[in-house]
Amino acid sequence: MSGAHQASGEADIAQAVLAILRLYRGLECVDAGLTPSQYRIMKLAAAGGERSTRLAQRLAVAKPTLTAIADGLVAAGYASRTAEPGDRRVVRLSLTPAGRAALDRADAAYTAWLGRLLDETGEPAAVLSALGQLAEAHRAAHNAAHRDGKEPGHEHAAAPQPGSAPPQKGGG
């Protein structure tokens, strides 16, 4: 790949990163009654009472972060914690009926928001397919990093240290 072509590809990827960040910001602004972080936790907990440690792993967040969000969900009456019989150290997070109702409302709000954007693309099925492929690639990279003992979410190359020269491009 030529240096100009590589730079063009990197610029396209940088634009894609900005687009993903704008989309996330758009999700934060949806009046769903739940933050995106609360929504993610509740979607996984809705599938069945999930161990807090496992939830943190699946969400790629630190356990204290999960605990803080879960505390808010419990305080709002959307979730409950139960100790596992035989091992009180294991805590499961489950949705309450109010939590299931809140999750249904959030599903509707987020689905409507994304549905409108997908309709604007003219190719909603292709965009959904590409998003699914991207999510699967991320999940695989996350799982591989977790298996290899690396901190999830840090699979990328290290950033240059302040004062160091940026890496050279194109073998020059």
What is the CA-CA span between the terminal residues?
A: 14 Å
Shape: globular
Q: What is the chain-wise order of helices and strands?
A: HHEHHEEHH
Q: What would CATH call the class of the domain at 34-147?
A: Mainly Alpha
| CATH fold-type name of the domain at 34-147 | Arc Repressor Mutant, subunit A
Q: Tell me about the biggest sheet?
A: 3 strands, antiparallel
How confident overall, as mean pLDDT? 83
Number of contiguous helices: 6
What is the radius of gyration computed over CA atoms, rounded to a whole number of angstroms? 20 Å
Q: Can you tell me the CATH superfamily of the domain at 34-147?
A: Winged helix-like DNA-binding domain superfamily/Winged helix DNA-binding domain
Strand content: 5-15%
Number of strands: 3
Strand order of the largest sheet: 1-3-2
Helix content: 55-70%
Q: Which descriptors would you attach to this protein?
A:
single chain, 172 residues, mainly alpha, Arc Repressor Mutant, subunit A, three-stranded antiparallel sheet, 6 helices, 63% helix, globular, disordered C terminus
